């Protein structure tokens, strides 16, 4: 739901110009980033992982992209002299036009945004200092930097929430600029949750016309189930403004809508005590519900693997922009084969849908761009966007409930991409530790399969 300020104060012309012409942006409204992922093609099929024989050089301390993103977001909460004067003028207008109680609420929202923003800037300053010490060899405590980076992301998201609450009252210039900055990062990293669509929709409602804001709103609307909004936005975008992932979403619009409606009904009937898994990763924590009732064998097998420590230390060996992140291979390149295969469960009477944040079992590729039945084992994917075709061949066994921004921050890794001679390859992100939360006392029976046994 979009909440609109009853005052409908016009956004100042200078603010629109500042938001539309940020430094380093190309004519399509995207900032060029050396570590930014390339755009993916239409996600027609989930790719199988392949062996990559490229060596990697560990420059894990040089986390430039994530570091720069936090600095950019923190800097966007700082007033310039001109913006401070404009903010003062807008607050004065707000006081003159708003009822006293509404004005007090707006000022309270302003104070809350300013407070969290300052905490965020202070944390980023600590992170900057730790980063400089680490990369210049004055200390070797990389974990301290990673901890500060994750704390910075938490505060960044809290400040974003406070900014959204504030611009419900009036277009506070700093809060508006901050929302734009965060949405730009979410657009780059495929973070399309409810707060993303809320922020993008509010900016559009205020008249901010940036291409990536409109695309972010459309994609987030598709992921969160606001299909009227998504359809309206896509109809108003020109063909040359779309990207391949948008074209794929539009082609699959009806299928995604139907699957989302099915999933919404299933979610409404989910018990409160579903098993959960928590992944502590090099980018932060991801928590996911496990669908033990619709995929009992798969979930039981997965829980046993987690409790054995199998996933601890494993890489996200393939992370494809706009598609998925794959992990669960002890060899780190997608080429391993499990000791035991488990039976498919995507053909059960009730199954879960492959939407944004879904956990999906990976399988061995077949000869015709399909998958060999009953070949799931240890590898699984986390989806950035809905992928309807998954439901035909693969088991959906969980969905992320916390940490979609962490998933989006994973370094993109493409084992299919040709490596240039002498190129320095950054190491992939990894699962530091996985643990099961809300474990049932008794697990369902795991149904194993022998997919290569002779058929009678």
TrEMBL record:
Top-level division of the source organism's lineage: Bacteria
EC top class named in words: isomerase
PROSITE patterns cross-referenced by the UniProt entry: CSA_PPIASE_2 (PS50072)
GO molecular function, a single term: peptidyl-prolyl cis-trans isomerase activity
Family annotation (InterPro entries): Cyclophilin-like_dom_sf (IPR029000), Cyclophilin-type_PPIase_dom (IPR002130), Cyclophilin_A-like (IPR044666)
Pfam families cross-referenced by the UniProt entry: Pro_isomerase
Domain (PPIase cyclophilin-type) ranges: 284-432
Keyword Isomerase included in the entry's annotation: yes
Region annotated Disordered, chain positions: 24-83
EC code(s) of this entry: 5.2.1.8
UniProt keywords, alphabetically: Isomerase, Rotamase
Descriptive protein name: peptidylprolyl isomerase
Organism encoding this protein: Stieleria neptunia
């Amino acid at each position: 739901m979009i909440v609109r300020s009853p005052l409908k104060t016009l956004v100042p012309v200078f603010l629109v110009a500042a938001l539309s012409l940020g430094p380093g942006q190309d004519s399509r409204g995207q900032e060029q980033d050396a570590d930014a992922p390339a755009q993916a093609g239409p996600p027609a099929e989930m790719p199988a992982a392949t062996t990559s024989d490229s060596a990697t050089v560990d420059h894990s301390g040089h986390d430039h992209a994530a570091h720069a993103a936090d600095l950019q977001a923190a800097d966007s909460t700082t007033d310039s002299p001109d913006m401070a004067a404009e903010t003062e003028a807008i607050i004065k207008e707000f006081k003159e036009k708003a009822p006293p109680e509404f004005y007090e609420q707006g000022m309270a929202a302003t104070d809350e945004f300013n407070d969290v923003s300052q905490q965020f800037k202070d944390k980023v300053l600590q992170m900057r200092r730790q980063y400089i010490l680490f990369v210049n060899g004055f200390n070797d405590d990389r974990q301290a930097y990673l901890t500060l980076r994750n704390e910075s992301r938490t505060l960044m998201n809290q400040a974003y929430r406070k900014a959204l609450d504030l611009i419900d009252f009036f277009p506070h210039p700093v809060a508006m600029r901050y929302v734009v900055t965060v949405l730009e990062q979410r657009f780059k990293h495929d973070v399309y949750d409810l707060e993303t669509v809320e922020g993008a929709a509010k900016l559009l409602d205020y008249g901010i016309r940036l291409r990536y804001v409109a695309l972010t709103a459309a994609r987030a609307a598709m992921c969160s189930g606001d299909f009227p909004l998504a359809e309206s936005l896509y109809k108003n975008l020109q063909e040359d403004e779309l990207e391949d992932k948008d074209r794929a979403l539009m082609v699959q619009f009806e299928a995604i809508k139907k699957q989302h409606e099915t999933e919404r009904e299933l979610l409404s009937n989910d018990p409160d005590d579903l098993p959960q898994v928590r992944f502590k990763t090099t980018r932060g924590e991801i928590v996911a519900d496990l669908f033990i009732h619709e995929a009992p064998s798969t979930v039981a097998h997965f829980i046993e693997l987690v409790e054995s420590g199998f996933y601890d230390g494993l890489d996200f060996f393939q992370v494809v922009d706009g598609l998925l992140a794959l992990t669960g291979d002890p060899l780190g390149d997608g080429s391993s084969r499990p000791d035991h295969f488990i039976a498919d469960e995507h053909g059960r009477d009730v199954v879960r849908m492959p939407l944004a944040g879904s956990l999906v079992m990976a399988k061995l590729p077949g000869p015709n761009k399909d998958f060999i039945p009953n070949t799931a084992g240890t590898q699984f994917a986390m989806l950035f966007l809905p992928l309807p075709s998954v439901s035909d061949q693969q088991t959906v066994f969980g969905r992320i409930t916390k940490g979609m921004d962490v998933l989006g921050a994973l370094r993109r890794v493409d084992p299919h991409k040709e490596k240039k001679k002498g190129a320095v390859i950054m190491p992939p992100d990894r699962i530091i530790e996985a643990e099961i939360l809300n474990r049932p006392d008794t697990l369902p029976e795991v149904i194993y399969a022998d997919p290569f046994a002779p058929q009678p």
